[in-house]
Specification:
With 322 residues, the chain is mainly beta. It has 2 helices and 17 strands.
């Protein structure tokens, strides 16, 4: 609770005291996802988004390195679906437990079978869907609901999965404050990870307790045309269910830089605030957007029209030759 209040104070001090301007924010305004939290923003209809995310997790002498790509598709301007998987994991354990907590929920890698154990291979996968209500009633308030399904495709005997199927519903809220070339966004998420064991370890004592996890988060983001800064607080707690013993909290500063028109790179560093949390994580993101065909055509037409207008204006301003 002390950590929660401390972070809340930080957010309140950081949040600028701008009055909420009575003007509508357009959905095409610049936005980028977070690192341990979901965003309310949808994708444009028929557009694609690809995220490539390497992640490093350190906990005492144990560490975990993995890479997972995600692809999302905009079914409508408010609804999109996504799929991601972990094609490769490298896990190094000195006999301890590694906790993997992230935007895809939380899972705990069982203790190593022996010291200095290193394993690698295929990890788990997820798929899900999100529906958003943007700028409700022309305000700067937005909301979204999301469902994530987690499938344990990794090898449990190599400690590359905890063996649980997860059903994870979320609700996400956001409020924008517009000021000059920047936009401040306050956001929150509430979710629950409902677990069901699909795989069992060859040694039953190494299996994690099947306890549902409550996931809470809130934060603040400062967004401009080229740079996005964020600070997230995220809590994963299952002590309320089936004698669970996990209580993990993270504070995640993050930054995104718009590298090109449809390309952005990001870096987030979740810092553990509780004993059960990993010491720190390093999350990288490479995000590529592929516009819908009609959107791309419209953009090209607009650019051509602007080009012709500029050319005509320049010619009109030329001095007459005597």
């Amino acid at each position: 609770m002390k950590n929660f209040l401390a972070v809340l104070l930080i957010l309140l001090c950081w949040c600028p005291s701008y009055a909420d301007e009575e003007k509508s924010v357009q959905p095409e305004d610049n936005w980028l996802p977070y690192f341990l939290s979901y965003s309310v923003f949808p994708l444009a209809k028929d557009s694609y988004e690809t995220i490539i995310q390497p992640q490093y997790i350190r906990d005492a002498d144990d560490w975990l390195l993995f890479l997972y790509p995600q692809i999302s598709y905009g079914v409508t301007d408010s609804w999109f679906v996504y799929f991601n998987f972990t094609p490769y994991i490298i896990l190094s354990q000195q006999g301890g437990t590694v906790s993997l907590s992230g935007r895809r929920g939380k899972k705990e890698i069982p203790p190593a079978l022996e010291e200095n154990q290193r394993t690698s291979g295929l990890g788990d996968c997820d798929f899900g869907s999100q529906y958003s209500w943007m700028y409700i009633n022309k305000s700067t308030f937005s909301a979204a609901v999301l469902i994530n399904f987690h499938i344990p495709t990794g090898d449990i005997n190599k400690n590359l999965t905890d063996g649980f199927f997860r059903y994870e519903p979320y609700v996400v809220f956001a409020k924008d404050f517009i000021h000059g070339g920047w936009r401040t966004e306050l956001f929150s998420q509430t979710g629950i990870s409902l677990v069901q064991r699909l795989k069992k370890h060859s040694s039953p004592e190494d299996d994690d307790r099947a306890a549902h996890t409550l996931i809470l988060g809130f934060g603040i983001a400062e967004r401009s045309e080229k740079v996005n800064l964020s600070l997230e607080y995220t809590l994963f707690n299952n002590t309320w269910n089936n004698n669970g013993d996990d209580n993990e909290a993270y504070l995640t500063p993050g930054i995104y830089i718009q590298a090109a028109k449809n390309v952005a790179v990001g870096l987030g560093v979740p810092l553990g605030l509780t004993k059960q949390a990993s010491q720190y994580q390093i999350i990288g993101n490479i995000l590529v957007d592929i516009d819908a065909p009609q959107t791309a055509q419209k953009t090209n037409k607009d650019e051509n029209a602007n080009s012709k207008k500029i050319k005509w204006d320049v010619q009109r301003r030329k001095p007459n030759k005597s």
